[in-house]
Amino acid sequence: MLQFNTIEEATTFLGRNLTRAETWWFNYSAKKSDYYLYCHNILFLFLIFTLVPLPLVFVELMRSLGFNKYKIQPKVSLASSEMFKCYKDVMRMFVLVVGPLQLVSYPSTKMIGIRTGLPLPSVWEMLSQLVVYFMIEDYTNYWIHRFLHGKWGYEKIHRVHHEYTAPIGFAAPYAHWLEILILGIPSFLGPAIVPGHMITFWLWIALRQIEAIETHSGYDFPWTPTRFIPFYGGADYHDYHHYVGGQSQSNFASVFTYCDYIYGTDKGYRYHKKVLRKLKEESGTNGATQEFKSE
Ligand SMILES: [Zn+2]
Ligand SMILES: [Zn+2]
């Protein structure tokens, strides 16, 4: 809900004309409550969980069209029914946990000061806040994830997420309900420390989920733009974590690679890549007969 009733009032308050984006925001949000705006996240998450993995379903079913060479674990293939089952499980958890969590967490966004009014943040402000959110999330998630690989955490909670030893896009949010709640904390910590505008918050939640779907895609596409992000882990990096499974003491970080590097938990992965490179050199093949794609 905006503090102005008309665009003229907003113009007087800001001491300048509204930008095109601000006029759009005024028209869209002026009569909507902050709670209603916050709950947009539920719709965005539903659309992201449903639509973003869909091209990956097509790729998995049409591997013979040339996608096979990008599959990280080429020996594994999933039928459409298996992928649909994963989607149904994720949607059940969405209705029972993710949606209600969004509904009840609204007071905390008010407490930390996420604003909905004008002026809108600049692109620079949004980008810098998003970078901070990703870094805080990555660091906190690293330690929580590492804790979840302890005996108790793995057996009681994290085992569910590791049911997919060769992950797929739909499996990104596939986890025990308690894990969904626990990992909500790192996602919320960035906005709590550096509160921004509601639009930045929407973008943050959306981008984080899209990133998770990409890292669980099971495919390492050479054209993905995230390759240009410094220290970005990506699909190959997290796929290895799932491949090793419960015993994994490698690649805990959710987004970047530097935490694993600093704390020495990427040694298994680096050794694995070295072996694959060596195999590729020796065989002179593209690795089609191996268990893993060898770059
Ligand atoms: Zn794990
Ligand atoms: Zn995972």
Automatic annotation (TrEMBL):
Its main location: membrane. Pfam families: FA_hydroxylase. The keyword Lipoprotein does not apply. It is found in: Membrane. InterPro entries: Fatty_acid_hydroxylase (IPR006694), Sterol_Desaturase_Related (IPR050307). Residues 131-265 form the Fatty acid hydroxylase domain. Belongs to the sterol desaturase family. This is Fatty acid hydroxylase domain-containing protein.
